[in-house]
Structure formats: C-alpha cells, structure tokens
Amino acid sequence: MVNLIWAMLALVGIVFAMFNGTMNEVNEAVFKGAKEAVTISIGMISILVFWLGLMRIAEHAGLLTKLAHLCKPLVRRLFPEVPADHPAMGYIVSNMIANMFGLGNAATPMGIKAMEELKKLNGNRDTASRSMVTFLAMNTSGITLIPATVISIRMTYESSAPGEIIGTTLVASAISTIGAIFIDRYYYWRRTRGGKR
Amino acid sequence: MEIVQIISLWLIPLTIGFILLYGTWKKIPTYESFVEGGKEGISIAVSIIPYLVGMLVSISIFRESGALDYMMRFIKPLAEAIGLPAEVVPLAMVRTISGTAALGMTTDLIATYGPDSFVGRLASTIQGSTETTLYVLTVYFGAVGIRKMGDALKVGILADILSFVVSFIIILLVFGR
C-alpha cells in the first residue's frame, strides 16, 4: 500500500504538471524535497545522539526496567506480546511520556529505540509485528497536553485566549488515541480470524 | 494549564539530572555509556535519509505541481454537502501527509479567519491533536528497516479521520459555531 501511495503521489503530480504548465515547479520540487529530507535527517543527529546516549545510561542503570515495571498494568494490556520487564516497555513508556508533554525531540529517539526492541522481539524480521502497529497507531494520534506550536501561532495573531484550545485538543487527541487502539485491535482481530480459516 | 507548562519546562532538565544521578549512584560508567549509546544515533539518522528523501520528493512533486490544490477544490463541495466546514477540510487531509504543509495551512487559516473564530479554533485543534502519520511511519519504520508495514498505514489514516471528526464535534460542543 505504501508503494502504491508513494508512486501515485509522484505520478499524479507529474501528469498534472503536464496539463497545468507547472513542470518548472515540479523540477524544483524534486530537489527541494530531497534537500529538505537530508536536512531533517542530519538535523536529527544531534537529538538522536544526545537522547540515545542518555537513555543508554538509564538502561544500564536498570531505570528502563523499573519504568516498565511501574507502568505494567496499563501498558501490558496494550502490548500483550511484549514481556513485562523487557526494555522495549521502558522505551515505549518514555516515548509516551515525552509525547504527552510535547517533547517531540525526546520522543522520536525513544520511539525509534522502542521499534528496534520490538523488532528484536519479532526475530528481526522486516515485517511489522502486532505490537509495532499498535505502537505506531498510538504515536500517529498522539495524546498532547500542550500544543505549544499552535499556541504560539495563536499568540502571533493576537488571540484573546491562545490557550483555550488546550482542553479541546486534549480531549480530541485522547479520544482519537483510544479510537486508534480500537481500530488497531479490529484489524488484528480480522488478521487472526483470516489466519485461522 | 500553568502547572502543565511548568512541568514541560522542567521535565527535560530534571530527567537528565535524575538519570545522571541514578547512574552515578548505581556505579555505571556514565560517560562511557553515553558515548556508546550516542554512537547509535548517528547510524540511525543516516539510515533514515533514503526513506525520507523518497517520501518528501514524492509529496513535494504532488504539492508543487498544483495537483494538491486541484484535489482540494474538488473535495470542498463534497465536504460542504455533508455539513463539514469546507475551509478546514484541506487541512484535515494534508495533516496526514505533510507536517510542513499542514502547519502552513493552519497558520493561513488562523491569519485569515482569526484565531478566535470557529475555523481558527477548529484548525488549531486539528493541528494540535494528531501527528503527521506518513512522517511517523517513514521515520520509525525506516530507522529499523521495516519493509512490510502490515495494517499500520490503514490504522493511522483511520485514526486521523477519527481525530478530525472528534475535533469538529468538540469545537461545536464547547464553543458553538
């Protein structure tokens, strides 16, 4: 599905440009897009190195196992395939906490580490496991306590109450995260039912 | 609200302090562990590059060719027909694909309609309550080399649609039109 979406985005764009006379923009878009991607990736090095370094200390000191243990009752239900005291749990919980506080910079490295641990649990296959899909679903809907960027935009345009959308954002993201978990469960149920046939 | 802001401000320094303190107390070679873990960050960042280049080039071709704008014009009347605010529908659709484009649209909507208008509040909530699914998918799966994504994309997109609908209902309930 990703292959199709990826190819279609570019193909539709190119064909559209033929009729729309925007070939020039498309040419620029190729190089701008590639450059932006490299800039983002390279820019991530600083954050990744720092947080992964710090988290390694936490892992060696046994903090991640502790954290996983602490959040066991909740997270275990979400990720039944992950052993309760596995470091993957620690990374998953750290990622969720960082996301909640809008610390995207800290959340991404921990999320990547969580994925890496989940992949190990899945026998290093290149197929997404059930836990990976659940973890991704939770990350794409993401519970946010403070949407800092949006608040700053609202302040720029002189909102009388820039923070008034905090409540609505929190409720919307909480409901959609719960919804994402249910959607994920539904697809899992469909997969397993199909497998048994 | 203020308490939450203070927590966000203090959380990173306190986390760093706590990990260093705990590591030292547990007699972990903190600096060496840090360097060892940090090294991994470089290879992860580099391994994401091809995934992100592929995705962003494709998305920017689609956007810059004008195909995105054209699609939006087509979808607007459809959205209006089922009672959704037409101004915000493009944002809801782009939110899944491109974070930069969505942020630009949100800013534009807030600037045009005002931050305290129905559209401004709705755009703010949509922007804040979900992540760019395609980006998260590319980075997380790219970093660890997952090729077969299973149902991840479908689940992510459905969750985004749900998030948009929920945002719409909540803004209606809390602030009215």
UniProtKB/TrEMBL annotation, chain A:
Keyword Repeat applies: no
Sequence ranges assigned to domain Nucleoside transporter/FeoB GTPase Gate in this UniProt record: 43-153
Cross-referenced InterPro entries: Gate_dom
Keyword Glycoprotein: no
Keywords: Membrane, Transmembrane, Transmembrane helix
Transmembrane segments: 6-26, 38-58, 88-112, 133-153, 165-188
A Pfam family hit: Gate
Protein name: Nucleoside recognition domain-containing protein
Organism: Anoxybacteroides rupiense
UniProtKB/TrEMBL annotation, chain B:
Membrane found in the keyword field: yes
Keywords recorded for this protein, A-Z: Membrane, Transmembrane, Transmembrane helix
Transmembrane regions listed in the UniProt entry: 7-25, 41-62, 155-175
Pfam families (UniProt xref): Gate
Hydrolase as UniProt keyword: no
Annotated Nucleoside transporter/FeoB GTPase Gate domain residues: 46-146
InterPro entries: Gate_dom (IPR011642), SpmB (IPR052549)
Protein name: Spore maturation protein
